[in-house]
Design brief:
The protein is α+β, with helices and mostly antiparallel strands. It is 28% helix and 27% strand. It has a four-stranded antiparallel β-sheet. The relative contact order is 0.25.
């Protein structure tokens, strides 16, 4: 069992999965994986190509940041989704980071305590 804000965690996962589906070239793969730690849970959302160059991965969580400046709000979102994800994770006393995926795209790695009240 975990003690989290279920609505916010649902928003977090929906946002990450939507991004992975949106930015993965068809036919692609999206993988969601959970790994239990002693006092927490690691969540991985990863996808196949195209990836994000390593030098841009930290910036993905900055508000209004878009890797592809040619994307408009209509085709690429507002640029707030991953910043909101980071805020949700921090509110749960967790950590979030972008990494290279072994599927060829991007992996978002989230570390959350099992009980966000005691972290």
């Amino acid at each position: 069992p975990v003690v989290w804000d279920a609505t916010r965690i649902e928003q977090l996962l929906a946002n990450l999965l939507t991004n992975s589906i949106r930015y993965t070239t068809t036919p692609g793969r999206v993988r969601l994986r959970l790994q239990r730690r002693l006092a927490g849970l690691d969540i991985y959302v990863e996808d196949s190509a195209p990836g994000v160059p390593h030098e841009h991965q930290k910036q993905l969580f900055e508000p209004l940041y878009r890797l592809d400046t040619a994307r408009s709000r209509d085709s690429g979102g507002s640029g707030l989704g991953l910043a909101i994800c980071e805020a949700i994770v921090r509110a749960h006393h967790g950590r979030i980071r972008a990494e290279d995926s072994d599927l060829g795209g991007l992996r978002i790695h989230i570390e959350l305590p099992l009980d966000a009240r005691r972290a």
